[in-house]
Design goal:
With 225 residues, this protein is an alpha/beta fold. Helix 2 runs parallel beside helix 3 (63-73) and helix 6 packs across helix 7 (175-183). It is elongated, with a radius of gyration of 19 Å. It has helices spanning 14-25, 37-46, 63-73, 88-97, 109-124, 156-167, 175-183, 188-204, and strands at residues 6-10, 30-34, 51-55, 79-83, 101-104, 130-133, 136-139, 144-147, 150-153, 173-174, 212-216, 220-224. The chain contains eight helices and twelve strands. The strands form three sheets. The protein has a five-stranded parallel β-sheet with strand order 2-1-3-4-5, with helices on both faces. The protein has two domains: 6-124, Rossmann fold (3-Layer(aba) Sandwich); 130-224, Arc Repressor Mutant, subunit A (Orthogonal Bundle), CATH 1.10.10.10.
Length: 225
Amino acid sequence: MNKKIKILLAEDEASLGIIIKESLESRNFEVILCEDGELALKHFKKSNFDALVLDVMMPKRDGFTLAQEIRQTNKNVPILFLTAKSQTEDVVKGFKIGCNDYIKKPFSIEELIVRIIALTNKIQNTNSTKFSIGLYTFETESQQLIFNDKIYKLTNRESVLLEFFVNNKGQVLERALILNAVWGNDDFFSGRSMDVFITKLRKKLSLDTTIEIINSRGRGYKLIF
C-alpha cells in the first residue's frame, strides 16, 4: 500500500485495542484508537477516515448506536463490526444498520487486514465494474472475462475470487486469508475447492502469457501481470 489507509478503531478492551492498533500501524495503516463509542463519534466528526472498525459492545455508545448515528450523515464510509456475539439476529441487525462487514472474535490480524483492504477497494471502485488484467477485460457486474472476441462467463465464486486477486495484485495472499475472505472458512474441503477454482481461472487467463497466478509454496498465491 502506498497511501496509508486511515482507520478509526473503537475498542474498549484496552489490550486488544493496542494489539490491533500496533499491528495495523506496522503494516502502514494510520489508526486512531478510541476506548468508547462517544469518543469515537467525536473523532469521526473531526476527521475523515477510509474505514471504521467498531466493537459492538462498548460503554457510553455501543457499536450499533454509533453506526446508526454515523449513517445519518455518511452513507459511504465502510464499517466493519468486531463482536464476540454469534447470534444470527446480531448479524442481521448489523447489516440493517448499514455495516459492510462483520468479524467475530477471536480473529487473526491478517484476516482483519484483508477485509479492510477489500472494503476500501470496493468503495474506491464503486463507479467502475471493469478491470484490465493484462490483455483481458474483467467485468465484475456481468461476471465476464473478455479477451478480444472471446468471452468467458464466470461463476459467482470465480468472479469473487478473481476480484479478490485483482484488488491485491502482486501480494502473496495466504491460503487461509483467501479461504476466509471468499469461502467464509478455511477447512479442508474449501481448500480443495479453492485449488480447483484457481486452476479454472489459470486456464481462462492463459491467452495472455504475462498473467500468472503463482503458487508460493507454504504461503499462498499471488496474481501478477
